[in-house]
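Question (not urgent): is this output format expected?
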Amino acid sequence: MNRTTVAAAVLTATALSLTACGGTDGESTTASDTTLRTPTDAGRCTDDKVGGTITMGEFAMLPTFAPGQGHYGVRGAAESAALYDRLMRWNAEAGQFEPQLAESLEANDDNTVWTLTLREGVRFSNGDPVTATDVAFTVDLHKDPATRSAALTDALQVGSSRVVDDTTVEFTLTEPWSGFPILLSGAAGEVIPQQAYEAAGPEQWARNPIGAGAFTLGSYIPDQEVVLEPNPTYYGGPVCPTLRFIRIPGGQATLDSMQSGEIEVGFLRGAKFVAAARDADQQGFYEVISSGSTVNMNSGAAGYDGILTDVRARAAIAHAIDRTLADQRLTGGLGQPTSALLADSSRFYGGQEGPQYDPGKAQQLVEELKADKPEWRGELTLLVADAPEQTEAGVILKAMLDAAGFSVQMENAPVSQVIARQFTGDYEIVIGGLATSDADPASAFGSGLTPNGATNLTGINDPRLTAAIAEIKAARSLEDQKAAYNTLQEVHNTVIPFTVIANAEEYVIVDEAVKGVKPTLSSTMLFDGAYVEE
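Got this back:
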């Protein structure tokens, strides 16, 4: 049996690199060329440190506390993780998964059967014990499409969950998967008490949840503010602060709020703002997100039957984008422009490249489409979030696509609406991005590229993509996984459901007085041990 405290998603794991740069469209100076300061380990909350409030500025607030919504740090995952806790944690510095609420997680020789053991004596905030039955119930919730969980795709790889005893559950997978612990490190690892959930019903639960985490819900104003209060019965020991989460639109506003003292923790996304935080010597937790900035192209979601159902239109968009020029204009050359699915800092990167900038080919494809479809004159509608940096990116993208023969109309909307519309297929093209963790990138790619995937926002349905992702998950050595990712890139270059613009850089800035915060998947912060130093 191989314990996840020793092995990560591959047999030979290395820590996540924090210093790589560049992309397939040209070299670029990155925000990480100068060392970013990670908070030092200052222990965790103790009885003498209880008190105070930590306010975090969110890029996007948690939509609801319904199961499966708090999957990504960019979308309020710290809020749900604080209330529910998680069974496992991804430790990027050590390059391995570690038990959090769980005691252990072990796999059989071919990674098809995983056995999870809970800690003894853990209780939900209502006093009920956390049991293996609750864990199995939670995973089944995420497997139900009606739950609309962001972890749906990964959860569906669990063929069965067998409760062995009160603290032990055995997961049998539908196929081998060495990165299975990522499922229990994300939203599906936020255990839901079956009895309380069924008594409340999904609608009431989304506003009044009960978890096993370090905090309980104090107040909740959707898309504005969430206040979480310390859970006096938390299994991990005393909980020090009250947590307050507020939405702050845009990176500059987040930096300004940090400077003014309005917040103590802030979520930054984008190389320009990471560089500004670095220049201000602001400590924090840094992560490179492969495929973090993309142009999503609706190829059939929600019944869309427009021009992008033709792969030639999608290819034209991919070839029309000068990623290096876009980076120069957006970040002053600080970012990581690329067309590849994986960042070259990823331990799985094997030299693969995506579609290259080729304006002549883009124009040729558009002219071909206009000749074949005389009723179409190049029209495209680009949905863009209202954050200043997103609007600027939209203007640049529009200019490049118009130069290739498209006629692009921009539509601005609040970031929460843009996110919601992507998930319902209510768009034609939109600037988006994957929340890919180097713990196991196949999780994000599987969710985004397979039929009925939880984050398959484009509606793509191609069996070649599904087969390529299955090959990645079954691969057991690092070299085999690299080869499998190369295959995925080759297929993706043919199908082009989205095109990568750049890797995203995320940096969660933390005030010097805040101690004991630790990161997990996708820049999600865990506050169970946090405290404020006077």
